[in-house]
Amino acid sequence: MDAKHFTHYKSTEILTADPAKIILMLYDGAIAFMHQAAEAAENHNYIERAHKITRANNILLELLSSLNFERGGEIAVNLREIYVFLVKELLKADRENDAQLIRTCSDILNTVREGWQSLVQPGQAQPVQESQLSFSNIA
Q1: How confident is the model at residue 136 (pLDDT cuts 50, 70, 90)?
Q2: Based on the structure, what is the number of domains in the chain?
Q3: 117, 92, 113, 115: which is closest to 102 by C-alpha?
Q4: Is residue 35 in a domain?
Q5: pLDDT digit string, tens, across residues 21-58
């Protein structure tokens, strides 16, 4: 599948997805970018690392801005704290070229993803594996 068709496919998937699935897709995207950032950090590819961390942080900021504190209550407050923490830690990892810190952030977000998936699809929560991430082709 070429890049044009892949982009069209992903756009259609997003436009037709229910909000809960969109959140899962955002988690998957952020996790994928964190994996790519960690790999770039290990390879001393500083520009790529910074780019992928920026992409992951942009997703986290989107997730943060979508929180509904009236309906979400304590869960929304806890998610806000996690997202803010992850943004700060990723910025620190970028400054220090710390692949392990990036992986730790990815693990934390993957745990949140599992919890979210168990709420929207009970009995199907599984950790996302790097080989399952489909955001690696998106620039």
Answers
A1: very low
A2: 1
A3: 92
A4: yes
A5: 889 999 999 999 999 999 999 999 999 999 999 999 99
The pTM of this model reads 0.78
Evaluate whether residue 49 is within a structural domain. Answer: yes
Q: 104 lies in a domain?
A: yes
Residue 8 falls inside a structural domain: no
Q: pLDDT at position 121, please?
A: 73
Q: Which domain holds residue 126?
A: 19-132
The tokens describing 10, both together, are 């992903």
| Cβ neighbour number for residue 35 with a 10 Å cutoff | 20
The answer for 47, left when phi > 0, alpha when psi is -120 to 50, beta otherwise, is: alpha
Which amino acid is residue 14, in one-letter code? Answer: I
Nearest by Cα to 30 from 64, 81, 72: 64
